[in-house]
From TrEMBL:
It comes from the Bacteria. InterPro entries: ABC3_permease_C (IPR003838), MacB_PCD (IPR025857), Macrolide_Exporter_MacB (IPR050250). Residues 20-233 form the MacB-like periplasmic core domain. Keywords: Cell membrane, Membrane, Transmembrane, Transmembrane helix. Belongs to the ABC-4 integral membrane protein family. The keyword Transmembrane applies. It is a multi-pass membrane protein. It holds the Pfam family MacB_PCD. The chain crosses the membrane at residues 285-307, 328-359, 371-392. This is ABC transporter permease. It is found in: Cell membrane.
Length: 409
């Protein structure tokens, strides 16, 4: 009889101890896969959110409160636009891009809408006082910062829809607007149509692709046009800054605070710090749970194998008397361990993935997909633990003397 036939026969004859050991291994892999899956996709979601926002540092009025960094300009507070010029003249190392914004509520076609005033790159380049500062030009050799590479917003795309991802637009006329996807749909507007805002007619030059942010429901117009027509004067709600990550986490914040003590400086890392800490904790806990459950599984497997050797002394002795080698007996026990590890690894991966897919959207509003890499980790870890736990029992079985076994009987 071949060795794999003996393995399957043995597992069918004694299913209860095998199922107990298999369950412990499966639960360990399931815990690891579920928690790691949610943590990985949660981190990806945060990275996507930060990329769609573009800026990683926000300059806000001192009395502004930041509840949602997507809506950081909807706090109702304002500050002088002159602060942007002060920051430009400061030439702070690490600053890659400045983007002042002003949000004003208005109505059009019987609907309430948010109009966001922004400055295109051409406006920066037109300011003689700012020329040579490197802002929004991405010029090689400029002293705008210490980043190893320029921010994506400096790529110079002429497509107005780049505003959705790069947070900049090259040109925007005084009576031109860019619509968010939801705003365009609700107002039934497309590129080339006209819209009335603040009793003035504007031309739609672009519709942004849906990005899943607050920008989808907004209308973007030239900052100075919004200031003039809304009668707010030269003020802004927020100054978005794209800064080198190492600077945003270091001296840049203190430099900004020293340059603009009248404002509140907020980093996106501060906003998402709690979520990142939760993700890190979840990831570490998954390995702790995984280790504990696999140790329990290893103990269970070792106990079952030792008991199996004791119960089957005569059968093992008979096999060896019939010519079975010590290596054959060792492979017989280790083969059962491999089957337990492989089945436990696959079952744990499938169960953990299903659990993550169900719990991810409910717990953290994160869509989860299977991660094949976790299958490999689960298979290798579960199989390795099962084999190591079975090694001593297998060596003990292989060391039995058939003569002594039959004499004891």
């Amino acid at each position: 009889m071949k060795i794999h036939h003996l393995i399957w026969k043995e597992m069918r004859k004694r299913p209860t101890p095998m199922i107990t050991s298999l369950l412990a291994v499966t639960l360990g892999v399931m815990a690891l896969v579920a928690i790691q899956n949610i943590a990985v996709f949660s981190q990806r979601k945060i990275a996507g959110d930060m990329e769609s926002l573009g800026a990683n540092v926000l300059v806000l009025p001192p009395n502004a409160s930041l509840q949602d960094y997507y809506a950081a300009d909807m706090h109702g507070e304002t500050m002088p636009e002159e602060f942007v010029t002060r920051l430009a003249f400061a030439r702070l190392p690490g600053v890659e891009n400045l983007a002042p914004k002003l949000c004003v509520e208005t109505s059009t076609s019987g609907q309430e809408i948010t109009v966001t005033g922004i400055l295109p790159r051409s406006e920066y380049q037109a300011k003689s006082a700012w020329q040579g500062l490197g802002m929004l030009t991405g010029a090689v050799g400029s002293d705008r910062g210490c980043c190893s590479s320029s921010a994506s917003s400096l790529s110079g795309s002429d497509d107005p829809s780049s505003l959705a991802t790069e947070r900049t637009i090259k040109d925007l006329g005084e009576r031109e607007v860019v619509l968010g996807s939801h705003a365009a749909a609700s107002l039934a507007l497309k590129v080339g149509d006209n819209i009335r805002l603040f009793d003035a007619k504007f031309n739609v030059i672009a519709v942004l692709p849906e990005g899943g942010t607050i920008d989808d429901s907004r209308i973007f117009a030239h900052l100075h046009s919004v200031q003039e027509l809304a009668g707010t004067g030269p003020v802004v709600n927020v100054i978005e800054i794209i800064a080198c990550c190492e600077d945003a986490a270091g001296s840049l914040i203190s430099n900004l605070s020293a340059e603009l003590p009248e404002t509140k400086i907020v980093t996106i890392s501060q906003v998402v710090q709690t979520q990142l800490a939760v993700n890190t904790l979840m990831s570490r806990l998954s390995w702790i749970f995984f280790s504990i459950l696999l140790l329990v599984g290893a103990s269970s497997i070792a106990s079952v194998m030792f008991a199996n050797v004791t119960e089957r002394r005569q059968e093992i002795g008979t096999l060896m008397a019939l010519g079975a080698s010590r290596g054959f007996v060792t492979r017989l026990f280790l083969g059962k361990a491999v089957v337990l590890g492989v089945v436990g690894g696959v079952a744990g991966y499938v169960g953990g993935t299903m659990l993550a897919i169900i719990l991810g959207p409910r717990l953290l509003n994160v869509s989860v997909e299977p991660l094949p890499a976790l299958l490999a980790i689960g298979l290798v870890a579960a199989t390795l633990v099962a084999v190591l736990a079975s090694f001593l029992p297998a060596r003990r079985a292989a060391g039995l003397d058939p003569c002594l076994v039959f004499n004891d009987a």
